[in-house]
Write a structure and sequence with these properties.
By secondary structure, the chain is mostly beta strands. 6% of the residues lie in helices and 61% in strands. It has four helices and 44 strands. The strands form nine sheets. The chain has a 24-stranded mixed beta sheet that branches. It has a five-stranded mixed beta sheet with strand order 3-8-9-6-7. Strands 15-43-42 form a three-stranded antiparallel beta sheet. It starts with a helix and ends with a strand.
């Protein structure tokens, strides 16, 4: 369908949105432009935001897609400690987890599928390296330079199954000037348990003007805010992250970075599940069981536990020549969840225990070339190769049903994108990516002997390929403002459903995006706004039938929305305001016949809900149902205040994140209510020392962070952390 057809068909909705954007931009532009004459720096202007969303360093205003960029310092101020809490800084982003698995939702694009060989729709990259395993993507965020969230399909330059967007996490490179930081924090939850963390970063020259190195460490002991009443155990988390880099600069034109990381997570809280309304299959075994009935308390008879470790390394070479810039990125990642044990019915009787260790191993290679400017013309080209293995070995249910599943993926892609500046004000970007992926699924139901997998049987093998284009037109209204239109497509390859021994491959999913946006910045303000329309076809969804997760393709859906972000620092420079919101009025399945869902079991005689588990039902036509986990409105607001006071500097921050209610599952019977997360921090810096006091979730909200609907077992959930207050001391040089 052509762009004209889309916007004609949707003219009423998008027209209303356009008016809203125009009014918002006009008012803010008039207010902010008046401040533009103030001096830059600490006493006035905002720092320039540089991103690498188009494979080269650019001012964020010059990139014709919606991007949220958050600095490492801002993440610390907001109390964002890991990938799971990134949503508080990015309107339109929901970070859901199902046990060990992270399932990002960006502008309504997400997945409920888990298992070997199935990827998230929102690709996550760390220093340019794709993170393939959803089971390994809940990790801490130490030593961060910035995080870039690219909204919409990244089908050309970052095309690895990124139908909904990409999250780039960039860590700091070593410096040739000695720098370092040590930070200690201590906090307490409103539930009475404590957190202790220590982090450090050291960077400096190893060989003058030739080799620099850096190392960072983060250790955190979280005693937990959940308690298993049946086993009388606090459910806490302990994490350790190590990250190191070597930077070689043998010449002005060549630099080489060798990076390595190790992470360990010992987590008793991620699968500490509470039964909503007491709906658990445990009542079918014993109708008289007692459940705690208060938040952050569970009564599981089996100690749910995740013990995960990950390590990886990469080598990046960047060479600048008279012809352009060449780069090579070689990477290896290994993730192991040696323990992934869950009592998924959330009750004190034995119904279903899952023991599900997970391994993922990925090797990738990428080459990229960015040309010099040939007058008004420049281009980027690249090649991407990946080999990936993901495995359940073994998957055990109630110590009786044991099998193994493995998925091997070989993928490669070639891409190119060109920019042509037609005039001083008008530029065009056009790009293509060809992607090809081959997946092979293996299963084995033979008993595990000596902890080693038995020979696998091949279940299925399938290949998918796709050409995904991108086209952008950018018109500069002035030296610091532009409007743009971008059409792009995203592709996520299909899969082999090894969990259900299904030899019929799952179809690939595709997304077409139409985005119209505006960006502007001055010395002390920046703002961006965009309206978009998505045509989303064959999205992969997972639903339970009995105790088994089945994967299927929903036919099609349409998503329409509006994004806005802005920053403003008044002339005094002491105050900085930040605000952003995402409004998604339409996010409905356009066509979905024979959808599967779950509803509570009813007593066959009385018809009353027994709260003793769920039964699978078939919905003849789910067309018009709203896509799950997609609130109509999310927004954040932050205020920073900085003032030189006496011999030091006072800093204060107030921040809030709001989410409107949304359906956590298809039928809408489990709904997350609207909620607001408030946070604050006050710090005093003198010489090299900083003392801080902080609070997270000051309103003590308990929103759902993960819904575990494991078929007939019932409805069990995790909630976000309660009120968390603490102090920190930091020494930096």
């Amino acid at each position: 369908m052509r762009a004209n057809d889309i916007f004609t068909t949707k003219k009423h909705c998008l027209g209303a949105m356009s008016v809203a954007v125009g009014v918002a931009m006009s008012v803010q532009a008039q207010q902010l432009h008046a401040q533009n004459a103030s001096a830059s720096g600490a006493t006035g202007g905002l720092e320039e935001v540089v991103v690498t969303a188009q494979r080269r360093a650019q001012n964020i205003t010059d990139v014709p897609i919606s991007i949220t960029a958050v600095s490492g310092a801002a993440l610390e101020t907001l109390g964002i400690r890991d990938t799971l809490s990134l949503e508080q800084a990015v309107p339109g982003l929901q970070m859901e987890r199902v046990g060990a698995y992270l399932q990002p939702n960006l502008r309504g694009v997400s997945t409920t599928v888990v298992g070997p060989g199935f990827d998230a729709n929102i690709a996550i990259y760390v220093d340019g390296v794709y993170q393939s395993s959803m089971a390994g993507n809940i990790f801490a965020l130490p030593d961060i330079e910035r995080v870039e969230v690219l909204k919409g399909p990244q089908g050309t330059l970052f095309g690895r199954n990124a139908t909904g967007g990409a999250i780039q996490i960039i860590t700091r490179n070593p410096s040739f000037e000695p720098t370092g930081k040590v930070k200690l924090s201590y906090g307490a939850y409103s539930e009475g348990e404590y957190t202790t963390s220590a982090s450090g970063h050291l960077s400096g020259p190893l060989v003058d003007d030739l080799v620099a190195g850096s190392i960072s460490v983060l250790w955190e002991d979280d005693e937990g805010y959940m308690h298993n009443d049946f086993l009388d155990k606090d459910l806490g988390v302990e994490t350790l992250n190590l990250h190191g880099k070597l930077l070689f600069e043998p010449s002005e034109n060549l630099n080489i970075v060798l990076g390595g990381n190790y992470a360990d997570r010992d987590d008793f809280a991620a699968i500490g599940l509470e039964a909503i309304d007491g709906n658990t299959a445990g009542r079918a075994v014993d109708p008289n069981i007692e459940l705690p009935g208060e938040r952050y308390h569970t009564a599981q008879d089996f100690l749910s536990h995740i013990e995960a470790s990950a390590w990886g390394s990469y080598l990046r070479l960047d060479l600048s020549t008279a012809l352009g810039d060449f780069s090579s990125l070689t990477a290896y990642n290994f993730t192991e969840n040696s323990k992934n044990n869950a009592d998924s019915d959330g009750s004190p009787v034995v119904v279903a225990h899952y023991i599900n260790p997970v391994e993922a191993e990925t090797l990738s290679q990428e080459f990229n070339y960015s040309s010099v400017d040939y007058g008004p013309f420049s281009y980027i080209a690249g090649l991407y190769l990946m080999s990936d293995r993901q495995e359940w070995s073994p998957f055990t249910v109630v110590d009786t049903i044991t099998y193994q599943a493995k998925n091997e993926t070989d993928a490669w892609a070639v891409y190119a994108e060109a920019t042509y500046q037609l005039s001083e004000r008008l530029s065009f970007i056009a790009g293509l990516r060809y992607s090809e992926e081959d997946r092979t699924g293996y299963v084995s139901t033979a008993p595990v002997i000596g902890g080693k997998p038995d020979p696998y049987q091949e279940l299925g093998d399938e290949s998918w390929d796709k050409v995904t284009p991108r086209f952008s037109a950018i018109y500069n209204l002035s030296d610091n403002s532009n409007v743009y239109f971008t059409y792009s497509e995203g592709f996520k390859s299909g899969g082999i459903d090894t969990l259900n021994f299904n030899p019929v491959p799952i179809d690939q999913e595709e997304l077409k995006s139409y985005e119209l946006g505006f960006k502007s910045e001055g010395e002390n303000y920046s703002l961006s706004a965009a309206i978009y329309h998505y045509d989303y076809t064959d999205q992969q969804v997972g639903t339970y039938q009995g105790l088994v997760l089945t994967t299927q393709n929903a036919a099609s859906s349409e998503i329409e929305g509006l994004d806005f972000e802005g920053r403003w620092r008044p002339m005094s420079g002491a105050v900085e305001l930040q605000a952003g919101f995402s409004y998604i009025p339409n996010a409905d399945y356009d066509e979905w016949l024979e959808a599967d869902a779950l509803e509570p079991i009813r007593d066959p005689l009385t018809g009353e809900i027994c709260y003793c588990g769920n039964a699978g039902i078939a919905i003849d036509d789910a067309s018009g149902y709203r896509i799950i986990r997609t609130p109509k409105f999310t927004g954040n607001l932050g205020v920073n205040y900085t003032r030189e006071l006496g011999a030091g500097t006072l800093f204060a921050n107030l921040n809030a994140y709001y989410s409107k209610g949304y359906n956590a599952e298809l039928l809408g019977r489990i709904e997350q209510d609207s909620y607001v997360l408030y946070g604050a921090e006050v710090s005093w810096t003198m010489d090299h020392w900083t003392l801080s006091g902080w609070g997270r979730n000051l309103g003590d909200e308990n929103d759902i962070i993960g819904l575990n609907q494991l078929g007939t077992l019932g409805d069990t959930v995790n909630y976000t952390a309660p009120r968390h207050l603490g102090v920190s001391v930091e020494y930096a040089f």
